[in-house]
Amino acid sequence: MTILYIIGAGGFGFEAALICDAMLASKSAPFNSYAFLDDDPEYLNKRGQQQLFAGKLNSHEVDPSALYICAIGDPNSRKSSVRTLQAKHAQFTNIIHPTAIVADSAQIGEGVIICAFAFISTFTKIGNHVHVNVSSSVGHDSVLSDFCSLSSHVDITGNVSVEERVFFGTGAAVLPGFKIAADCRIGANVHVMRNLKPESIMYNEPAKFLNKKS
After folding, report:
1. What is the pTM of this model?
2. Of 54, 69, 123, 126, which residue is least crowded by CB atoms under 10 Å?
3. Own/partner long-range contacts of 149-156 (Cβ < 8 Å, ≥24 apart)
4. Residue 81 to residues 22, 75, 177: CA-CA distances in angstroms?
């Protein structure tokens, strides 16, 4: 019996658990059960899921027969937690929803989470500990480097290069051929149409009322 430990018992952690349930149901999972590691189990407690709490990350002793996945949304926090467990020789795996489409020619790293209805096209390179959320796509010949995060409905088009720890908000898109440097933050519904320097931040203006009722 192999257990998968999900690091991070917050909102995306439970979305990762949904992927695990789908993989177990389709018999495509390399594990038999899962549980959460988190230094603050309050999210679990509020939802009556205490039985899934396996302990705090800082005090966890790595099980060499177990598998691990990090479901912490923030790229830098995810990197820190992953490095903590890598120092203890944790074995990371990928979880990919059965409805996701991943090209045979795509290269996928370790610790990757790919949610339902995502599309990973031909000759793409997905780095380690990348999150690809619901209905997001990565176009042909594109590169997503380590610890990147795609929120739902993100469109990374063809021949795009994304360096480490870049975060994309819901509905963001990058047009073909552009390069996004490390640690950029791309807001919801932003369309990137140029190369971005490290730590760039792009956000759209908030929505405005055209006809406000009294």
Report:
1. 0.94
2. 123
3. 149/73, 149/74, 149/75, 149/78, 151/188, 152/115
4. 25, 10, 32
**Cα 140 → chain centroid:** 19
SS3 12: helix
Q: In 3D, which of 125, 165, 124, 169 has the Cα closest to residue 151?
A: 169
* Distance (Å, whole) CA 35 – CA 55: 9
Indicate if 102 and 31 belong to the same structural domain: no
For 77-98, write each residue's pLDDT tens digit.
999 999 999 999 999 999 999 9
- Tokens 């010949």 belong to 141
> Are 49 and 148 members of one domain?
no
Say which residue the tokens 């791309």 belong to: 186
Domain count of the chain?
2
